[in-house]
Design brief:
By secondary structure, the protein is mainly α. Helices cover 65% and strands 0% of the residues. It is globular and about 40 Å long. Pfam families: SLT (PF01464). Belongs to the transglycosylase Slt family.
Length: 206
Protein backbone atom coordinates (compact mmCIF):
# COMPACT_ATOMS: atom_id res chain seq x y z
CA UNK A 1 0.00 0.00 0.00
CA UNK A 2 2.77 2.44 0.91
CA UNK A 3 4.62 1.59 -2.28
CA UNK A 4 1.50 2.33 -4.34
CA UNK A 5 1.08 5.77 -2.76
CA UNK A 6 4.78 6.47 -3.30
CA UNK A 7 4.43 5.66 -7.01
CA UNK A 8 1.33 7.90 -7.27
CA UNK A 9 3.18 10.75 -5.53
CA UNK A 10 6.18 10.44 -7.87
CA UNK A 11 3.90 10.54 -10.92
CA UNK A 12 2.05 13.60 -9.60
CA UNK A 13 5.27 15.45 -8.84
CA UNK A 14 6.68 14.61 -12.26
CA UNK A 15 3.51 15.96 -13.86
CA UNK A 16 3.71 19.19 -11.86
CA UNK A 17 7.36 19.77 -12.65
CA UNK A 18 6.73 19.55 -16.40
CA UNK A 19 4.11 22.31 -16.36
CA UNK A 20 4.95 26.02 -16.68
CA UNK A 21 4.85 27.98 -13.43
CA UNK A 22 2.41 30.44 -15.05
CA UNK A 23 0.36 30.92 -18.18
CA UNK A 24 2.05 33.60 -20.27
CA UNK A 25 -1.14 33.91 -22.38
CA UNK A 26 -3.15 35.38 -19.49
CA UNK A 27 -4.46 37.97 -19.44
CA UNK A 28 -5.38 37.79 -23.15
CA UNK A 29 -3.78 40.25 -25.56
CA UNK A 30 -5.47 41.68 -28.64
CA UNK A 31 -2.86 43.46 -30.79
CA UNK A 32 -5.28 44.97 -33.33
CA UNK A 33 -5.66 48.51 -31.92
CA UNK A 34 -2.06 48.98 -30.68
CA UNK A 35 -0.74 47.73 -34.03
CA UNK A 36 -2.98 50.19 -35.91
CA UNK A 37 -1.65 53.03 -33.77
CA UNK A 38 1.94 51.86 -34.17
CA UNK A 39 1.57 51.66 -37.95
CA UNK A 40 1.34 55.46 -38.19
CA UNK A 41 5.06 55.54 -37.37
CA UNK A 42 5.99 53.04 -40.10
CA UNK A 43 7.84 55.62 -42.29
CA UNK A 44 10.17 56.35 -39.35
CA UNK A 45 10.49 52.64 -38.55
CA UNK A 46 11.45 51.92 -42.15
CA UNK A 47 14.11 54.62 -42.09
CA UNK A 48 15.53 53.42 -38.75
CA UNK A 49 15.34 49.79 -39.82
CA UNK A 50 17.34 50.53 -42.97
CA UNK A 51 19.95 52.43 -40.96
CA UNK A 52 20.42 49.72 -38.31
CA UNK A 53 19.57 46.53 -40.18
CA UNK A 54 16.29 45.73 -38.44
CA UNK A 55 12.94 44.66 -39.90
CA UNK A 56 10.49 47.62 -39.75
CA UNK A 57 7.71 45.13 -39.04
CA UNK A 58 9.58 44.01 -35.93
CA UNK A 59 10.10 47.63 -34.84
CA UNK A 60 6.39 48.32 -35.30
CA UNK A 61 5.49 45.27 -33.19
CA UNK A 62 7.77 46.49 -30.40
CA UNK A 63 6.12 49.91 -30.51
CA UNK A 64 2.67 48.31 -30.38
CA UNK A 65 3.55 46.20 -27.33
CA UNK A 66 5.61 48.81 -25.49
CA UNK A 67 3.52 51.96 -25.86
CA UNK A 68 0.50 51.17 -28.00
CA UNK A 69 1.81 53.81 -30.40
CA UNK A 70 1.68 56.66 -27.88
CA UNK A 71 4.89 58.77 -28.10
CA UNK A 72 4.23 60.61 -24.83
CA UNK A 73 3.76 57.66 -22.46
CA UNK A 74 6.14 57.38 -19.49
CA UNK A 75 6.08 54.22 -17.38
CA UNK A 76 6.30 54.02 -13.59
CA UNK A 77 9.90 52.86 -13.99
CA UNK A 78 10.78 55.90 -16.11
CA UNK A 79 10.76 54.31 -19.58
CA UNK A 80 9.82 56.90 -22.18
CA UNK A 81 8.07 57.07 -25.51
CA UNK A 82 7.20 54.74 -28.34
CA UNK A 83 9.82 52.08 -27.64
CA UNK A 84 9.90 52.74 -23.90
CA UNK A 85 13.56 53.63 -23.44
CA UNK A 86 15.04 54.49 -20.06
CA UNK A 87 17.40 57.47 -20.33
CA UNK A 88 19.94 56.05 -17.87
CA UNK A 89 20.13 52.52 -19.31
CA UNK A 90 19.31 51.89 -22.99
CA UNK A 91 19.42 55.62 -23.75
CA UNK A 92 22.83 56.00 -22.16
CA UNK A 93 24.15 52.92 -23.94
CA UNK A 94 23.11 54.28 -27.33
CA UNK A 95 24.67 57.64 -26.47
CA UNK A 96 27.96 55.94 -25.57
CA UNK A 97 27.86 53.88 -28.75
CA UNK A 98 27.41 57.07 -30.79
CA UNK A 99 30.25 58.77 -28.94
CA UNK A 100 27.98 61.23 -27.14
CA UNK A 101 28.14 62.30 -23.50
CA UNK A 102 25.34 62.28 -20.93
CA UNK A 103 21.89 60.74 -21.23
CA UNK A 104 18.99 61.56 -23.55
CA UNK A 105 16.35 63.81 -22.02
CA UNK A 106 12.73 62.83 -21.53
CA UNK A 107 11.66 65.38 -24.12
CA UNK A 108 14.14 63.93 -26.61
CA UNK A 109 12.80 60.41 -26.04
CA UNK A 110 9.24 61.65 -26.54
CA UNK A 111 10.22 62.70 -30.06
CA UNK A 112 9.03 59.81 -32.28
CA UNK A 113 11.94 59.95 -34.74
CA UNK A 114 14.58 60.10 -32.00
CA UNK A 115 12.91 57.39 -29.94
CA UNK A 116 12.55 54.94 -32.79
CA UNK A 117 16.06 55.65 -34.03
CA UNK A 118 17.57 55.10 -30.58
CA UNK A 119 15.42 52.05 -29.82
CA UNK A 120 16.41 50.45 -33.12
CA UNK A 121 20.06 51.31 -32.47
CA UNK A 122 19.82 49.60 -29.09
CA UNK A 123 18.54 46.40 -30.71
CA UNK A 124 21.49 46.55 -33.12
CA UNK A 125 23.91 47.00 -30.21
CA UNK A 126 22.47 43.89 -28.56
CA UNK A 127 22.52 41.86 -31.78
CA UNK A 128 26.11 42.67 -32.69
CA UNK A 129 27.38 42.82 -29.12
CA UNK A 130 26.43 40.50 -26.29
CA UNK A 131 24.16 38.32 -28.48
CA UNK A 132 26.60 38.07 -31.39
CA UNK A 133 27.04 34.51 -32.58
CA UNK A 134 23.40 33.40 -32.53
CA UNK A 135 22.94 31.93 -35.99
CA UNK A 136 19.20 31.37 -36.49
CA UNK A 137 17.52 34.72 -37.37
CA UNK A 138 14.24 33.69 -35.70
CA UNK A 139 16.01 32.60 -32.52
CA UNK A 140 17.96 35.86 -32.60
CA UNK A 141 14.70 37.78 -32.77
CA UNK A 142 13.37 35.96 -29.70
CA UNK A 143 16.68 36.54 -27.91
CA UNK A 144 16.55 40.25 -28.77
CA UNK A 145 13.00 40.57 -27.45
CA UNK A 146 13.89 38.80 -24.20
CA UNK A 147 17.03 40.88 -23.75
CA UNK A 148 15.18 44.11 -24.48
CA UNK A 149 12.64 43.56 -21.73
CA UNK A 150 14.69 41.72 -19.09
CA UNK A 151 18.36 42.15 -20.02
CA UNK A 152 20.76 40.04 -22.05
CA UNK A 153 22.62 38.86 -18.94
CA UNK A 154 19.48 37.35 -17.41
CA UNK A 155 18.77 35.56 -20.68
CA UNK A 156 22.25 34.09 -21.15
CA UNK A 157 22.45 32.94 -17.52
CA UNK A 158 19.47 30.65 -18.10
CA UNK A 159 21.81 28.68 -20.38
CA UNK A 160 25.25 29.11 -18.80
CA UNK A 161 27.29 31.55 -16.75
CA UNK A 162 29.80 31.43 -19.61
CA UNK A 163 28.67 33.57 -22.54
CA UNK A 164 30.33 31.42 -25.20
CA UNK A 165 28.73 28.24 -23.86
CA UNK A 166 25.36 29.97 -23.62
CA UNK A 167 25.54 31.00 -27.28
CA UNK A 168 26.53 27.44 -28.25
CA UNK A 169 23.53 26.03 -26.38
CA UNK A 170 21.23 28.55 -28.03
CA UNK A 171 22.56 27.56 -31.45
CA UNK A 172 21.46 23.97 -30.79
CA UNK A 173 17.82 25.14 -30.62
CA UNK A 174 15.15 26.23 -33.05
CA UNK A 175 12.78 29.04 -32.09
CA UNK A 176 10.20 26.70 -30.51
CA UNK A 177 12.84 25.02 -28.35
CA UNK A 178 14.26 28.41 -27.38
CA UNK A 179 10.83 29.69 -26.39
CA UNK A 180 10.12 26.55 -24.36
CA UNK A 181 13.43 27.06 -22.56
CA UNK A 182 12.46 30.64 -21.69
CA UNK A 183 9.05 29.51 -20.40
CA UNK A 184 10.62 26.91 -18.14
CA UNK A 185 13.85 28.61 -17.07
CA UNK A 186 13.68 32.40 -17.23
CA UNK A 187 13.18 33.90 -13.75
CA UNK A 188 10.77 36.56 -15.02
CA UNK A 189 7.25 35.61 -16.14
CA UNK A 190 7.37 38.75 -18.27
CA UNK A 191 9.94 37.21 -20.63
CA UNK A 192 7.85 34.54 -22.40
CA UNK A 193 4.77 36.75 -22.33
CA UNK A 194 6.71 39.53 -24.05
CA UNK A 195 7.89 37.19 -26.81
CA UNK A 196 4.34 35.95 -27.25
CA UNK A 197 2.88 39.47 -27.42
CA UNK A 198 5.47 40.70 -29.92
CA UNK A 199 4.83 37.67 -32.13
CA UNK A 200 1.07 38.28 -32.00
CA UNK A 201 1.67 41.92 -32.93
CA UNK A 202 3.89 40.93 -35.85
CA UNK A 203 1.25 38.49 -37.07
CA UNK A 204 -1.31 41.34 -37.00
CA UNK A 205 0.77 43.60 -39.25
CA UNK A 206 -0.26 43.41 -42.90
Amino acid sequence: MKLRWFVVLVVLLAGCSSKPKYDYRNPPYNPTVPVQRAMQWMPISQKAGAAWGLDPKFITAIIAVESGGNPNVVSKSGAVGLMQLKPSTAGREVYRYMGWKGDPSVSELKNPERNISMGTAYFSILEHGVLAGIKDPEVMQYALVTSYVNGAGALLRTFSSDRKKAIEEINDMDKEEFFDHIVKNHPSPQAPRYIWKVQKAMDAID
